[in-house]
Amino acid sequence: GMARRQHRRHQTYQEGQDEQHLRQLTLIRDLQEAVSERQLWMAYQPKVDVRSGKVIQFEALMRWQHPTLGFIPPDEFISLAERSGNIRILSRWMIDSVCAQLHEWQHQGHHLSAAINLSAEDVMDVDLPELLLETLNHYGLEPHQLGLEVTESAVMQDADLAAQSLEQLNQAGLFIAVDDFGTGYSSLAQLKRLPVHELKIDKSFVLNLNTQENDLTIVRSTIELGHNLGLRLVAEGVENQASATLLGQLGCDYLQGYWIAKPMPAYQVVDWLNDFEPLELPFPKPLSEP
Ligand code: C2E
Ligand code: MG
Ligand code: MG
Ligand code: MG
């Protein structure tokens, strides 16, 4: 009867919870050797300039191939690494891996730039600026070849410390973007204090741009706001030509998304670049240069 069904449903729920918990514990335990066991790798996704149609940068995105659980998405393991105190190990590996890759591409004649994603822990790490600059120097790279993507919430955990750290990196020539813009809770007053060059409009506003009136309004106002603050605008999650065209008309500066390319392993990047034909989008209305 009813009572029995409910009991069973409850058991199933509990089992689901236990399973989830066990998975998290396993992942946290195994994260510690993911670096040394070479289970991590970086995927690269291009950002394209709307005006020239050309690739301006690649975003580096972390991937984890777990030996028994398979592919683990970064949205799952990054937050576990943050909560279990392992994120700095991953970030240090990532910084070295991306710079080594840029060095290798450079050696092959491709002077590329990459953006890395930083966690709140990284932004609060007082040793980070020096580490980044030393690593760039070690691989013979220019500071402008490395961009940093930080989320609003990462920066807002300690806005003063973040401002100090980012200012140091900005002075050294690194470009800084606010990622997932619109989903956090930063005030414009706080944002204004940060040495930011770029706003990345979160993909949740971009994915259904063509059908959701609200999303269109948000994206249009964000582009206007960003430009008024002297910033470049990037839209992530561009999945079709209609969105790309619309974003171009709205004056968005850079596009990123599956319509252009999915994140790819490093060994595919040069071939992909050689095959890539510059986008031809309707030229946006002229803007005052930020
Ligand atoms: P993010 O930095 O906002 O990266 C954008 C995410 O959107 C990526 O997911 C990317 O693969 C995905 N994406 C790009 N284009 C499209 C599209 O057209 N449609 C859809 N549906 N998705 C698209 P991914 O690679 O799973 O990364 C998720 C998040 O994990 C990243 O969001 C970032 O916050 C975090 N992350 C990834 N790598 C690192 C890392 O090395 N360090 C840190 N701290 N966080 C990272
Ligand atoms: Mg990002
Ligand atoms: Mg983002
Ligand atoms: Mg995101």
Automatic annotation (TrEMBL):
Domain of life: Bacteria
Coiled-coil region(s): none
Chain ranges of the EAL domain: 24-277
Protein name: cyclic-guanylate-specific phosphodiesterase
UniProt organism field: Vreelandella rituensis
Taxonomic lineage of the native organism: Bacteria, Pseudomonadati, Pseudomonadota, Gammaproteobacteria, Oceanospirillales
